[in-house]
Amino acid sequence: MKEITEDDIPTILECKDDKGKLISLWFDERLPYIKNNIMYYVESGCTDFSVVKNERHYDLSWVKEL
């Protein structure tokens, strides 16, 4: 059985899509990848981002400003 490491713990964010539907975004990747993906969602019309789970303790304070 594989040991669970910090890299296995997801970062979870929620936002509203361009139609106002609440969606969850799950990331198992490092912060630069998460930032790129969040900016893609912003460009796609998503709003109201919030952090649900951040077990890796990434600095996601900037998400609230999107």
Which helices and strands, and how do they pair?
Blueprint: E1 11-16, E2 22-27, H1 31-43, E3 47-54
Antiparallel strand pairs: 1-2, 1-3
Mean pLDDT metric: 90
Q: Over all CA atoms, what is the radius of gyration? A: 12 Å
Helix content: 10-25%
Tell me, what's the shape?
elongated
Distance between termini?
A: 40 Å
Number of domains: 1
Largest sheet: 3 strands, antiparallel
Helix-strand sequence: EEHE
Give the uncertain stretches in residue-range form: none
From the helix content, strand content and strand pairing, which structural class follows? Answer: alpha+beta
Counting DSSP H or I runs of 4 or more residues, the number of helices is 1
Binned strand content: 25-35%
Identify the strand order in the major beta sheet: 2-1-3
**Beta strand count:** 3
